[in-house]
Design a protein that fits this description.
There is one protein chain. This protein has helices at residues 12-25, 59-77, 89-97, 108-117, 170-182, 201-210, 220-229, 257-261, 265-274, 281-289, 304-312, and strands at 49-53, 81-83, 103-106, 122-127, 135-140, 162-164, 196-197, 215-219, 237-242, 250-253, 295-296. Mean pLDDT is 89; it is low at 1-39. By secondary structure, it is an alpha/beta fold. It contains 11 helices and 11 strands. It folds into 2 domains: 49-131 and 248-312, Periplasmic binding protein-like II (D-Maltodextrin-Binding Protein, domain 2, 3-Layer(aba) Sandwich); 134-242, D-Maltodextrin-Binding Protein, domain 2 (3-Layer(aba) Sandwich). It is globular. The chain starts with 11 loop residues before the first helix and ends in a 5-residue tail after the last helix.
């Protein structure tokens, strides 16, 4: 009986060469990690769903809102959901494009930017108030300008020190710029110096109240909340104009959602958002944080005007 032969070991150098050859023969899919010609990897049941939102308010407020939403979604989806804060509006769009964020609460403009940069992104829902959202122009009481009856009268703001919110804000920059243009006011020529960009709606209120800027604009929801909470001194700040309505904030899922979490997962997230009901006290509390009565479906056509204006202002390319 011949002794059994041991398997011959393949030298390390040969193994390394084989690995290089195999790597050269197939390109990994950027979403699923599957090599060309092979089936995509199965969704990971333990994967954490990462949600975020554009940083349009005070960070502490934003964290409270989104952690509450993360907890709600985790209960409905049966998986861990983490809120991931971002530094600015552009970061929200960039991280969504690269797949580092799965589901994001965008503004109208950032939502358009994100969909164009991440083809296949899935619109989920908007708040009921986003079906007819509005901005508010405000002024420091010493600015010498009072309430105006309509958009055309915004011409009274010429020569004032003016601040927008974030450069990519729909309600704090894009639509206000559109309404100023309708009044014949150019933000690049007609204010006292270049306009400011406060970075958030809360900061806009504070800058106008302090007199750093004579006039500013922010979203109506934040303005009404500040008035209700008594966190703005109405003896120092005057409401000038509430704008006509437009579509704004909405939830969106990334194009990699189905591959990462399973077929139909985006629909499950959408169903969870639409299921929020004021008859449930805990869900009513969550809706209150969003300043809404409910979430409703939305479609891409709702943001066509925003895309058009964004292109005119070179904010969408």
């Amino acid at each position: 009986m011949k002794p059994s032969r041991r398997p011959r070991r393949v030298p390390f150098a040969v193994l390394a060469a084989l690995m290089l050859i195999l790597a050269a023969c197939g390109t990994d899919d950027p979403v699923t990690g599957a090599a060309a010609g092979r089936p995509a990897a199965a969704p990971d049941p333990g994967r954490v769903l990462k949600i975020s939102a554009i940083p349009d308010q005070d960070p502490a407020k934003l964290t409270a809102v989104n952690r509450a939403m993360a907890e709600y979604l985790a209960g409905h989806l049966g998986r861990r959901v983490d809120y991931v804060p971002v530094t600015d509006y552009a970061a929200a769009v960039s991280l969504f494009r690269t797949g580092d964020l799965d589901v994001v609460f965008f503004g109208g403009l950032t939502g358009v930017q994100a969909r164009l940069q991440a083809p296949g992104a899935i619109l989920l829902a908007q708040r009921d108030i986003d079906d007819a959202f509005q901005s508010v122009f405000i002024a420091n009481a010493r600015a010498g300008v009072g309430p105006v009856p309509g958009v055309e009268e915004l011409v009274a703001l010429k020569g004032k020190r003016f601040t927008f919110g974030s450069e990519s804000s729909t309600s704090g920059r894009l639509m206000p710029e559109y309404f100023l243009d309708r009044a014949g006011v150019s933000s690049s020529r007609d204010f006292s110096g270049p306009p400011g960009f406060s970075g958030s709606h809360d900061k806009t209120v504070e800058l106008v109240e302090s007199g750093t800027y004579e006039v500013g604009v922010l979203n109506r929801q934040v303005w009404e909340k500040r008035k209700k909470e008594g966190t703005v001194d109405l003896s120092k700040v005057t409401e000038l104009l509430v704008t006509p309505p437009y579509h704004d904030y909405h939830w969106m899922a990334g194009p990699q959602t189905e591959a990462r979490f399973g077929k139909g997962f985006a629909d499950k997230v959408k169903e969870a958002l639409l299921a929020l009901d004021r008859s449930d006290p805990s869900e009513a509390a969550l809706l209150d944080l969003y300043g809404a009565d409910r979430f409703i479906p939305t479609v891409a056509a709702n943001y066509a005007e925003i895309e058009q204006i964004g292109r005119k202002l070179n904010l969408v390319t």
